[in-house]
Amino acid sequence: MSLKAFNVVIFGGHGKVSLRLTRLLTSRPNTAVTSIIRNPDHAVGIQAAGATPLILSLEDNSVFDLSSTLKDIKPSVIYFCAGSGGIGGPERLKAVDEDGAIKVFDAIESLSGSSLTKDLESPRLILLSSLDVRDTSKPHPEHYTPEDIKHSAAFHQAIGPYLIAKYNADKNLSARSSFKWTILRPNWYMEESGVGKGQIGKGHLSRNISRDDVAKVLFLLLEREGAHGLGIDLVGGEEPLEDGLDTFIRKGESDFVV
Question: Which domains does the chain have, with CATH numbers?
Fold first, then answer.
């Protein structure tokens, strides 16, 4: 029996996590991947990972442009992994990580009732966010230890605008109901190779996670439609990622709180 076919779009396809995800996706039978990038110089890397590059700018192109592109590709799953990478200052960070993400949400929403969704389901969105993205005017999450609170203060002091942009995008997405979505919230990345293990759900901020393992969880979410409406925390740990993810989905309680 052949595997279910997927037509995948990745926004921000040249990032380190995205390229790892792409290689996992393109090694899966019946899976086509289009990676949307801004810089034409990155096309070679996309092709080497087995995907088709498509040049488009989240900053310069409109919601209509994005919607038209998605109508042409007809994706079943969309990953949003784009980010400014700290290049261009706070203005560009907001333009990509927050406003760019919301443009994509609007584009997906605009497909409802279009020729794309007439015979197919609306594409499902998997958003790559970050751990500790939250409203800092509210109390810390109940599971935070004193060490977590210390780490959180350091995070928000070091990369506050980034976390704010991610929070605003996540909050915007969590209010949408016209398409299925999932938010993955990994802790800071490690350069070490992946181990296929971690802790999924209500993790502690001292436990970093490798990019390999983040990409693995993104890949696993491809076939887990039951993760719809969930914000999923991911940190380093000892449980096999497949088992932890399936347990979290069965529980059905989101880690993202508005």
Answer: 6-251 (3.40.50.720)
